[in-house]
Structures are given as structure tokens and as C-alpha cells.
Design brief:
There is one protein chain. With 182 residues, the chain is of the alpha+beta class. It has one helix spanning 7-37, and strands at 39-44, 58-60, 67-69, 84-91, 99-105, 115-125, 129-133, 138-140, 156-162, 168-175. The termini are far apart.
Length: 182
């Protein structure tokens, strides 16, 4: 015997659909706003392991800025694993210049010209360096990307947009020329 939806069920279903549409629009709007109003920086990565592309559509990016010298630490107490941090990145002049770590802070800093703040957390504390993670390490590789054609493990440069409210997203990934790659 089929169950007839009552008016309250129909209203509930419409509210659920409206909530899902609002959520999708919010995510899309946040992504658009991050790209439109954010600071754009380039980050270099270590060579990317392309073997994962045989089994999935994602690669793991290991940024050179994921390791900072312990001298860059600017906190009042010694750094701890899993501690949330704000990483001050500086770029030299030029549209494709790569960002480097200038400081790691426990409090949000106001970036100056040519600087950006990227939120992250400490993954490891070594004797002379810090391991950092930015939640930008997993990248979906589209089907027409040059990364899918590569047989070797290239270094890439990643353009990241950082919104004033701290949200960051990967805009594009480019293969790094062999002369610049480490």
C-alpha cells in the first residue's frame, strides 16, 4: 500500500532540497570569492609521484614551503605537533615568483605588500625544522592535464589563492621547468 505524502512531508522535502541548493551555492560562492578577492601566490613542490594517477584521479603535493627552519618560529612557547599556525609567505617581484616561508606565527599577522598568510598546522617538530601542512596537499588532476601525460615525477608550481578570511584554494598547477626544479 503506497504511502501518500502529507503536506508536512512535502514541506520538509522542499526545505531539504532548498538547504542542499543553498549549501552548493555557498560553496561555489566561497570558491569564486576566494579567487576574485584573494592574494595569488605560487608555491613550488617536490617532485610529484605520478604512479597514483594509475589508480585514482588525485596526486599528493609536497610543497617546499611545507618545511620551515625552526628559526622561522615566532611563537611565545616552543612549537608543538598539531598546533594551528599562520605562515607568513613572501614573494619576490614578478608574476611567477615563488613564495617562501618568512615566519610561522601562532597569531594571525597582517601581511605587507608581497606577502600572504596561509593557515596550516604543524605536522612535526624536528631539531632544526618544522613540518607544516596547509590542507592543499591533495590535487585532482583533470583528464587533459599535462601531468597525466608524464612518465617521470616532475616538480610543479601551484598557484594558490588566499582569501582575506583565510580560505585558500588551488587555482592551477603548472609543470616547473627542469632548470628550476630541484
Amino acid at each position: 500500500m503506497p504511502i501518500r505524502p502529507t503536506p508536512s512531508h512535502r514541506l520538509l522535502l522542499r526545505l531539504l532540497v532548498a538547504a542542499q541548493v543553498l549549501y552548493v551555492l555557498g560553496v561555489a560562492g566561497a570558491g569564486y570569492a576566494t579567487t576574485a578577492y584573494g592574494r595569488h601566490i605560487w608555491l613550488a613542490t617536490a617532485p610529484v609521484d605520478l604512479h597514483a594517477l594509475q589508480y585514482e584521479s588525485f596526486v599528493c603535493l609536497r610543497y617546499l614551503a611545507a618545511e620551515a627552519p625552526l628559526a622561522a618560529w615566532r611563537g611565545p612557547t616552543p612549537p608543538q605537533r598539531r598546533q594551528a599556525v599562520y605562515v607568513l609567505l613572501t614573494t619576490t617581484l614578478g608574476p611567477d615568483s615563488l613564495a617562501t616561508v618568512a615566519g610561522v606565527y601562532t597569531q594571525e599577522q597582517k601581511p605587507g605588500p608581497g606577502q600572504a598568510i596561509l593557515r596550516g598546522w604543524i605536522t612535526e617538530v624536528y631539531n632544526r625544522s618544522l613540518g607544516l601542512r596547509y590542507n592543499l596537499e591533495r590535487y585532482y588532476v583533470p583528464g587533459d592535464s599535462p601531468l597525466r601525460l608524464g612518465k617521470t615525477s616532475p616538480a610543479v608550481r601551484v598557484q594558490v589563492s588566499i582569501a582575506p578570511w583565510g580560505q585558500a584554494r588551488i587555482e592551477q598547477v603548472k609543470l616547473l621547468p627542469a632548470t628550476i626544479a630541484r
